[in-house]
Amino acid sequence: MSDFENLHGMIIFAKVVETLSYTEAAKTLGLAKSSVSKEISALEVRLGAKLLQRTTRRIQVTEVGMTYYHYCYRILNEVKSADLFIRQFHEEPTGSLRVAAPVTFGCQCIVPALNRFVAGNIHVSVDLDLTDRPVNFADDHIDLAIAITRDLPDHRHYRPLMDIAWGLYAAPDYLLNRPAVTSPDDLARHEFILFRGPAHTISLPFRKEKQKKDIEVRSRFRANNSIALLNSAVAQTGIAYLPNYIAREAVEVGKLVQLLPDWEMDIYKSYVLMKSDSFISPRVRLFIEELQRALVPGTATG
Questions:
Q1: How far is residue 144's CA from residue 272's CA, in Å, rounded to a whole number?
Q2: Which domains does the chain show, CATH number per domain?
Q3: Which residue of 29, 169, 181, 214 lies most exposed, with the fewest beta carbons within 10 A?
Q4: Is the pTM higher than 0.85?
């Protein structure tokens, strides 16, 4: 007996159970009443079990029939969900898209993708909340959230975006009259610009092949915003420890140079978090695809 052979019979059986009528089930399914009766009988033969007791007045579901119906019900719901997904896939995206993202990463990396998305989907409006506080999908009424973390997100439904490597950056003029930096051990003689924390010193991690070093450095200037640290580094205040996406443009135009690029430092990962993997609306699905094209290496852009 093939499992697939029973699918048609399961659909008919479930409808008979729900209507307790061969006639109503036949009308709903667009079948002849005789076809419904034959299919139920054939299903019972294949299963080797009596599912329905039929009298002249009513239909009664047997105990095994009721248990079997619950399996049928779950399968049919999955089929409906699959059909709904395909319909949504082909629908034109409409409505409001609510996104939450960390302030700096949102401005630098998410907003450009949002701009392209808005330009290509004229029936979608976007509400972007730039915040560094933790977000709650229910309380904040959002569709998507961007998270940056070392480890996997606590949230159940997510998709990975880009890795965020950190590095040391300084203005070329800052380095002219100061000790050369050829290895991590040279850093202790320099001034640093770091994210604000409880201490003025921080241990910076370095890895290259089998070598690992932790170098303690001291900061004269600290801030809670990476753009402020970037601007301070450009102004020759010291060496800034920054995410690569923050420093990229300044490096390209020659305002900053990266120190010790052969050494690997901290690496964080970015993710897009979703309410659920099921029933993703067209606007949410298309924006996730836009994010992946923009941020995930190797993602097709066509």
A1: 7
A2: 4-90 (1.10.10.10), 95-162+268-295 (3.40.190.10), 165-267 (3.40.190.10)
A3: 214
A4: no
